[in-house]
């Protein structure tokens, strides 16, 4: 029994990766809060498992980093097999995970250098990796790219090889004491600048110097939530790395798109190698990664951008989101010239609905028609059309311009203001008939005719100024009764 107890007591000692002789502080569920969270010290903390091969490989470099940072930054380690509760608030899911507790202890920054899962290999030295294969094609259509066949297959010499080499080199280099120390010192610099009220100096990978007067908004860990999340604006955010070739290729297109989309969509850029809190929050694993944030989005609402990477691709994709987020159009009553022209001038099409007179179609009847127009407007809102309704007989010039008079009410036409041409609904004025008419217009179908010139040859028909409908039923005019008692009729005329 004594032998069993002795062995049991030795187990934790044998399994621990760090000892009291190291400069790595052993952190536990008992001391973590006091040593790390409530202290003013900056901490680099490794969450590890004693059985983890990567953790064992990291030990000598981590000890070296701790010695180099002694007196500047505290370096600690948590054995997650013994103190799982310490890591659970920080979403520790793999080993080793390193986090830097600096200015905001509740939101530690991930040390993103340790990205071991990017490639399916256990090798830590670039030279050991001969081939990484995730191809799901059959052998007949799979190729191992080599110098001898690269040009014939890819037709772009060396580019893929260099990209993979740099990626592997970066992963291997991230495990060094130097890389860990550099990340810790970056955190120190940010805390010092924050306390001095000085904006953090741009790192070597910053693109602000090349952006000049760019309309791209520079995003950071500090301003991201304030500017992007729960904003009334539409945002496209690029997460980039300064060393990434694709990011450099995207930059001029991103800047040009930001200029073209100004006042409609905001474009931002965040250096994920510096601002690691936000990069971690959105699970950034490759560069560039572009995320779309609709108005009033929170962090869980971020959507991956799936468009192209040219200026026109970005602008077209963003404009489609602008239309998608527009409120459904409200049909406007044609009561003066300005209202009608405002609905038509800058639109591809404007839809005119001529509704029966209020005496022929009282408030419920009219509201049913207007509700139908609203439903159709919401369905086709991405087209950005204008919507107008007109009381039958109230705007004679408009009716004459479209040749409405002989068709009766309700009636509908779609007009292109720039071309001064229109198409008329020939089917029923109901959901199916209108939907078919509008669907054809969306695809450029339908017969058109020129709009009849207005008064004295005016380009647009005259719209007379009227009082808006008050929403009430119409009242027939009061006809004054004539008293015939005093009228002397000649009976011979009867």
TrEMBL record:
<keyword id="KW-0677">Repeat</keyword>
<dbReference type="InterPro" id="IPR017937">
    <property type="entry name" value="Thioredoxin_CS"/>
</dbReference>
<dbReference type="InterPro" id="IPR036249">
    <property type="entry name" value="Thioredoxin-like_sf"/>
</dbReference>
<feature type="domain" description="Thioredoxin">
    <location>
        <begin position="5"/>
        <end position="190"/>
    </location>
</feature>
<feature type="domain" description="Thioredoxin">
    <location>
        <begin position="194"/>
        <end position="340"/>
    </location>
</feature>
<keyword id="KW-0676">Redox-active center</keyword>
<dbReference type="InterPro" id="IPR005788">
    <property type="entry name" value="PDI_thioredoxin-like_dom"/>
</dbReference>
<dbReference type="GO" id="GO:0015035">
    <property type="term" value="F:protein-disulfide reductase activity"/>
</dbReference>
<dbReference type="Pfam" id="PF00085">
    <property type="entry name" value="Thioredoxin"/>
</dbReference>
<feature type="signal peptide">
    <location>
        <begin position="1"/>
        <end position="16"/>
    </location>
</feature>
<dbReference type="InterPro" id="IPR013766">
    <property type="entry name" value="Thioredoxin_domain"/>
</dbReference>
<dbReference type="InterPro" id="IPR057305">
    <property type="entry name" value="Thioredox_PDIA6_C"/>
</dbReference>
<dbReference type="Pfam" id="PF24541">
    <property type="entry name" value="Thioredox_PDIA6_C"/>
</dbReference>
<keyword id="KW-0413">Isomerase</keyword>
<keyword id="KW-0256">Endoplasmic reticulum</keyword>
<dbReference type="GO" id="GO:0005788">
    <property type="term" value="C:endoplasmic reticulum lumen"/>
</dbReference>
<dbReference type="GO" id="GO:0034976">
    <property type="term" value="P:response to endoplasmic reticulum stress"/>
</dbReference>
<keyword id="KW-0732">Signal</keyword>
<dbReference type="GO" id="GO:0003756">
    <property type="term" value="F:protein disulfide isomerase activity"/>
</dbReference>
<protein>
    <recommendedName>
        <fullName>protein disulfide-isomerase</fullName>
        <ecNumber>5.3.4.1</ecNumber>
    </recommendedName>
</protein>
<comment type="similarity">
    <text>Belongs to the protein disulfide isomerase family.</text>
</comment>
<keyword id="KW-1015">Disulfide bond</keyword>
């Amino acid at each position: 029994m004594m032998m069993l107890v002795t062995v049991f007591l030795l187990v934790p000692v044998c399994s621990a990766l760090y000892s009291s002789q190291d400069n790595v502080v052993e952190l536990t569920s008992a001391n973590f809060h006091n040593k790390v969270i409530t202290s003013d010290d900056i901490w680099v903390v490794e969450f590890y498992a004693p059985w983890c091969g990567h953790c064992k490989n990291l030990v000598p470099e981590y000890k070296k980093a701790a010695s180099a940072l002694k007196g500047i930054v505290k370096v600690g380690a948590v054995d997650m097999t013994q103190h799982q509760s310490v890591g659970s608030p920080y979403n520790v899911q793999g080993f080793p995970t390193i986090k830097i507790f600096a200015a905001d202890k509740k939101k530690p920054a991930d040390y993103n250098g340790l990205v071991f899962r990017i490639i399916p290999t256990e090798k830590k030295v670039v030279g050991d990796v001969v081939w990484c294969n995730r191809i799901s094609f059959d052998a007949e259509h799979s190729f191992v790219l080599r110098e001898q066949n690269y040009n014939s297959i890819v037709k772009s010499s060396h580019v893929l090889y260099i990209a993979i080499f740099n990626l592997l080199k970066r992963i291997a280099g991230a495990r060094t004491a130097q890389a860990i120390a550099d990340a810790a010192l970056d955190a120190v610099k940010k805390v010092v600048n924050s306390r001095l009220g000085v904006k953090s100096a741009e790192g070597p990978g910053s693109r602000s110097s090349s952006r000049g007067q760019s309309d791209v908004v520079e995003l950071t860990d500090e301003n991201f939530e304030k500017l992007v999340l729960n904003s009334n604006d539409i945002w496209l955010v690029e997460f980039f790395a300064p060393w990434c070739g694709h990011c450099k290729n995207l930059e001029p297109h991103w800047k040009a798109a930001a200029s073209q989309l100004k006042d409609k969509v905001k474009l931002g850029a965040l250096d994920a190698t510096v601002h690691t809190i936000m990069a971690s929050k959105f699970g950034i694993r490759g560069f560039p990664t572009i995320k779309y944030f609709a108005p009033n989005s929170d962090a869980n609402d971020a959507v991956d951008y799936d468009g192209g990477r040219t200026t026109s691709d970005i602008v077209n994709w963003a404009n489609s989101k602008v239309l998608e987020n527009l409120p459904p159009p409200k049909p406007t009553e044609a009561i003066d010239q300005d209202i009608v022209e405002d609905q038509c001038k800058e639109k591809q099409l404007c839809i005119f609905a001529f509704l029966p007179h209020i005496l022929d179609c009282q408030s419920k009847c009219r509201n049913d028609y207007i509700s139908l127009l609203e439903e159709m407007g919401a369905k086709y809102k991405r087209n950005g059309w204008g919507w107008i309704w007109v009381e039958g007989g109230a705007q004679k010039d408009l009716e004459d311009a479209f040749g409405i008079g002989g068709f009766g009410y309700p009636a509908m036409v779609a007009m292109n203001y720039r071309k001064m041409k229109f198409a008329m609904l020939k089917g029923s004025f109901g959901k199916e008939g209108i939907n078919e008419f509008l669907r054809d217009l969306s695809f450029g179908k339908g017969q058109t005719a020129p709009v009849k010139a207005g008064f004295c040859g005016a380009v647009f028909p005259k719209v007379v100024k009227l009082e808006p409908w008050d929403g009430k039923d119409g009242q027939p005019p009061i006809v004054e009764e004539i008293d015939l008692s005093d009228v002397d009729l000649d009976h011979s005329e009867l």
